[in-house]
Amino acid sequence: SHILPFLILLPIMGIATIYIVESRVLIPQIARDLESEARLLAQLSSIQYNQWGSQLYYQYVLGRLRPNPEIQVMFLSPKGQILYTSEADELPLIGYYLQMEGLEEARSGQSVVYSEYTGLLLPYGEIEVLQPVLSDQGDLIGIIRMVYPNAAAGELFRLLRNLMLALWIVGLAAGAILALILAVNIGKPVMQVTRAIYVVAGGEHSQPLDEYGPQEVRNLVRAINYLVGRLNSLEQARRELL
Prior knowledge:
This protein is an alpha+beta fold. The protein contains five helices and five strands; from the N terminus they run H-H-E-E-H-E-E-E-H-H. The radius of gyration is 36 Å and the shape is rod-shaped.
């Protein structure tokens, strides 16, 4: 009875915590970091805009400003043509025009951030940033597309959930031990009170019980001791009268 509420509430709170941390903290923080890196890369590219379109320049920039190798980076022309990609399996796509949501906003000079989270059963957390690269005169030089893939987000989610699972197990073990201690502290004095009531009901004398345990149990023991004392006094008066 003491462990059951704890066993019900702890998993519910854990699932709610995972959802809040992943959807409201982790995904937005990754999106902000990715947007900051895209903005920094765009500022560097705007300074050296005359190198835009050079494969060696793209490799050099990514080697200097790409701290996380899991992030996918793609350089686009103002019309959305793929000029360079950091993923080797996407190199054959160079020269193709990218068609995707948010491209028109990026062409107009706006930074576009997309983040998607599907939930707890099938965690999906791909994050995408489109950052325009502008010259000093405000002309569009190109677009930088940075993607934090679902595989990296899934690995991060699994790590978080494993940590939460370990905390659940520790919490359940600690709760079980605490519930056992509480049950013993409550059950032992209650059993003494029960035995004292049966002794008095059988017409035998009962010694006062020791008052310990929770406050409610001590109040019960105090009431039983008062009852036993009154019954003993009445029995003594009856004998004296006889």
